[in-house]
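Quarterly update, task 2.4: adenosine-5'-triphosphate-bound model.
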Amino acid sequence: MIRLNDLKISYRIGNRVIDAVDGVNLTIPDRCVVGIAGESGSGKSTLMKAIYGDIQSPMYLSRGSIDYGLKGSDGQPVTTANVRREWFKSMSYIPQSSMNSLNPVIRIRDQFIDFPGADSNKKRVLERARDYIGKLGLPPEALDSYPHQLSGGMRQRVMIALATFFQPELIIADEPTTALDVVVQKEILMLLMELQEQMGNTILVVSHDMGVHYQVTHKMLIMYAGRVVEYGDTDSVFADPQHPYTRMLIDSLPTIGDDSMRGVLASAAGAGGDRAYGVTPDLIEVKPGHFAARAEEAGVSA
Ligand SMILES: Nc1ncnc2c1ncn2[C@@H]1O[C@H](COP(=O)(O)OP(=O)(O)OP(=O)(O)O)[C@@H](O)[C@H]1O
């Protein structure tokens, strides 16, 4: 179980401070797929990076803490201070545009060999990698290729293979299917979910596609202007959304995989400056396990 305690993450740019994530309090159960949605710039990537422990200047932790509920490879509890030691082993991160994050001048096989925490016996790593990528729908020759020789979907499968190679307990996937065509998007997400079922781990997945969230997540977390405005079981959030921004996202639900509404949603919600809704720091439990910021407190009459 991961517990976020009053988390506030900011960026310092010269004399200016941007509070990108503020007052986040929530618990993520084990073996859970949590979908994160929200307007552009609402702090989703910042929150994901903070959970991953990738807090580097100009980003900093202004307040709060994270309890990972995990034991590291040395048997000690994982904390924000030592979380980096657990990268790839206990937790891994699939960043935005990750299929372009593969080093272009290194063959895929060497990306597995050079992987932090990999076995020092290269032959053994390669045998395991060849076997593993086969299970993930990649031909064995992919291992001998350079990234540019593979399609976008294949590169994304390689990224997923790298991120899941050590069966981490937590995987953070930040828009893992952006820039892929609709059919490949669905295949990649289904692959990730199959792996989650097999490994029994927790996945946090950021996506703008509410159809995807409805299909694959157990819990939904909705962000707006740096705050979590709603968090609960996906069925409950979709059946009875409480915050007006959540309602707008659900009402605008496009056909699964259809990206055409993304820009519309972002601008309707006031991305880029104007805020359609006020934000409150506290979530209220509207029914067991379903938390939301109240609409009237958020400055909007429901
Ligand atoms: N490196 C940075 N330096 C300064 N400000 C930043 C930096 N990265 C993000 N921010 C600011 O933090 C806020 C949250 O950004 P973040 O990238 O977390 O949002 P997001 O919800 O992931 O957006 P998107 O859906 O567009 O990826 C925004 O106001 C953004 O401008």
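Highlight for this quarter: The radius of gyration is 19 Å.
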